[in-house]
Amino acid sequence: MPDRLTHLDAEGRARMVDVGEKPVTHRACVARGEVRMAAETLARIAEGRIPKGDVLATARIAGIQAAKRTDEWIPLCHPLPLDAVVVDLVPDPAGPCVRIEARAEAHARTGVEMEALVAVTAAALTLYDMCKAIDRGMTVEAVRLVAKSGGKSGEWRRTGEPELELPAGSVAPAGSDPGGGE
Predict the structure, then answer these.
(1) CA–CA separation, 70 and 130 (whole Å)
(2) Is residue 106 included in any domain, yes or no?
(3) Which residue range is the domain that position 59 belongs to?
């Protein structure tokens, strides 16, 4: 662990880190979170019975859009040209919750941790917004970084998390077309 925080100067003032001399490398990160809710709310989401529309599709788009604008959410983040952002939302009746996973990827001088975390958070908040009229007791929980690769610090994985794929070249889920579509 570093001895000092890189976002503080010698006098302790907040600053944007100068990454200009760092090499461009492939960066990939995965973040996860959950939105807990009443079982009936989850059933209505899964069955498409929410008056505001397709909750999971809208939350997925919100997560992707937010990842692309992370530097506007987090004051000291660098704007990054993202190569890919994938947001998955999975209803889990055992929770009852919707599990959210976001994968971000870039060739850049700094990591994409914040982009993955912002994607999960925006997807979760969108889900809450679309369902709050029927369940104000929902909670956004456990937003966390699960894995990262690339850069000087290399690979990191959170212990205790279910296994996931984080290949060197892509963070797209197995069976998907990482180069397709957009």
Answers:
(1) 22
(2) yes
(3) 25-157
Q: What are phi and psi of 171, to 5 degrees?
A: -115, 15
3-class SS of residue 73: helix
User: Exactly one of 71, 88, 129, 135 is catalytic; which is it?
Assistant: 129
* Residue range 91-113, pLDDT digits in tens: 999 999 999 999 999 998 888 99
Query: From the centroid of its chain, how far is CA 165?
Result: 15
Q: Is residue 172 part of a domain?
A: no
Contact 141, 35 (CB under 8 A): yes
Single pTM value for the model? 0.83
CATH number of residue 70's parent domain? 3.30.70.640
Specify whether 135 is catalytic.
no
| pLDDT tens digits, one per residue of 109-158 | 888 999 999 999 999 999 999 999 999 999 999 999 999 999 888 899 99
Alpha-carbon distance of 157 to 146, in angstroms, equals 6
Total count of domains within the chain: 1
